[in-house]
TrEMBL record:
UniProt keyword terms in alphabetical order: Aminoacyl-tRNA synthetase, ATP-binding, Ligase, Nucleotide-binding, Protein biosynthesis
One term under GO cellular component: cytosol
EC number: 6.1.1.2
PANTHER family: TRYPTOPHAN--TRNA LIGASE, MITOCHONDRIAL
Organism per entry: Blautia liquoris
Similarity remark: Belongs to the class-I aminoacyl-tRNA synthetase family.
Top EC class, one word: ligase
GO molecular function per UniProt: ATP binding; tryptophan-tRNA ligase activity
Domain of life, source organism: Bacteria
Protein name, as recorded: Tryptophan--tRNA ligase
Cited CDD domains: TrpRS_core (cd00806)
Example GO biological process: tryptophanyl-tRNA aminoacylation
InterPro entries for the chain: aa-tRNA-synth_I_CS, aa-tRNA-synth_Ic, Rossmann-like_a/b/a_fold, Trp-tRNA-ligase, Trp-tRNA_synthetase
Catalyses which reaction(s): tRNA(Trp) + L-tryptophan + ATP = L-tryptophyl-tRNA(Trp) + AMP + diphosphate + H(+)
Length: 348
């Protein structure tokens, strides 16, 4: 079997990308893309998956394809090095899903904790669209169609990768070695596994409206940071404060480097010293939030500026997506053909 190293990851075009995506997956993708360690990198805009819980709003999904593509280019994904494409343009993915559906039970899908949480968040309890319920299967099709060995994503995707591995294993056992087993690649930094929303909610998510977007203007970023959830019992500056569950400190865990301190808060050497002072009392939320604001502004400014350049030529973005989709389709066609051969359904 081929031992190529291949990356596949995706984002749903349900909104612009946010700093949760950035630390959970995007930043890593750019590093991997530029590392030269991978034979191929596939980056998919998962519009078909977005329709599974937005069937009544195709216009939203359509518009956000461009937004997500702009965010990609702005953070440094490079169409010369990565194949950037649109899921719905690859019909082979539907065909693969159709065959994989026979390898998964309803009760197995019902156990998926991420889907469970998403059903709850969307008030789908009594009205789950079948397409939404089965999206872990279609995700397995996405991953295996491109023979992905490495899937750099956030922690919420762990159950999806487990499901994909089970399908690969079952398929290969029944029909013979055909599909490649993927490995999840989680962020090293614990704070980046699942960045909370600015409201302190467990996950920053487009669908929850608690995001700092990569494209937010400086004033909006600042406003959002100043309104962030901290420790509700830390009322006066001299009060001792809690770090655990304090979203501002979780963001600092995700973004602060020692040289940020040298530049913006030289009275502290590092984050540990800042945390100690906060816990002791005598350090106000506003000072900590201002520090976080400096750091995020510094990180987001070049991204925002590059995005504005790309925004000038949407036709070029669509052309790039078109070219990428043609390349991706070719790769998926090959896998589907192998799959049908293994299943013995290549009749003609
Ligand atoms: P939706 O609410 O529409 O599902 P989302 O904000 O959850 O949107 P996705 O497109 O589902 O975003 O996720 C894209 C990628 O970003 C996945 O790899 C996911 O693990 C990662 N990701 C999403 N939100 C976070 C977060 N808050 N922290 C870390 N990683 C995240
Ligand atoms: Mg999601």
């Amino acid at each position: 079997m081929m031992s190529e190293k291949i990356i596949l990851t995706a984002d749903r075009p349900t909104g612009r990308l946010h700093i949760g995506h950035y630390v959970g997956s995007l930043k890593r993708r750019v590093q991997l893309q530029n590392s030269g360690e991978f034979d191929k990198v596939f980056i998919m805009i998962a519009d078909a998956q977005a329709l599974t819980d937005n069937a009544d709003n195709p216009e939203k999904v359509r518009q956000n394809i461009l937004e997500v593509a702009l965010d990609y280019l702005a953070i440094g994904l490079d169409p010369e090095k990565s194949v950037i494409f649109i899921q719905s343009q690859i019909p082979e993915l539907c065909e693969l899903s159709f065959y994989y559906m026979n390898l998964v039970t309803v009760s197995r899908l019902q156990r998926n904790p991420t889907v469970k949480a998403e059903i709850k968040a969307r008030d789908f309890e009594t009205s789950i669209p079948v397409g939404f319920f089965t999206y872990p299967i279609s995700q397995a099709a996405d991953i295996t169609a491109f023979r992905a060995t490495t899937v750099p994503v956030g922690e919420d995707q762990e159950p999806m990768l487990e499901q994909a591995k089970e399908i690969v294993h079952k398929f290969n056992t029944i029909y013979g070695e055909t599909l490649v087993e993927p490995e999840i690649l989680l962020p090293d930094n614990k704070a980046c596994l699942r960045l909370p929303g600015i409201d302190g909610n467990a996950k920053m998510s487009k669908s929850l409206g608690n995001c700092i977007y990569l494209a937010d203007e400086p004033g909006d970023v600042k406003k959002k940071i100043m309104s962030m959830f901290t420790d509700p019992n830390h009322i006066r500056v001299e009060d001792p404060g809690r770090i655990e569950g304090n979203t501002v400190f979780t963001y600092l865990d995700a973004f602060a480097l020692d040289d940020h301190f040298a530049r913006y808060l030289p009275e502290y050497k590092n984050l540990d010293e800042l945390k100690e002072h906060y816990k002791r009392g005598g350090l106000g939320d506003v000072k900590v939030k201002k520090f976080l604001n400096h750091i995020l502004q510094e990180e987001l400014e070049p991204i925002r500026n590059r995005r504005k350049e790309y925004e000038k030529d949407p036709a070029a973005i669509y052309q790039m997506l078109h070219d990428g989709s043609i390349k991706a389709k070719r790769a998926a066609e090959e896998t589907l053909s192998e799959v049908k051969k293994s299943m013995g359904i290549n009749y003609f």
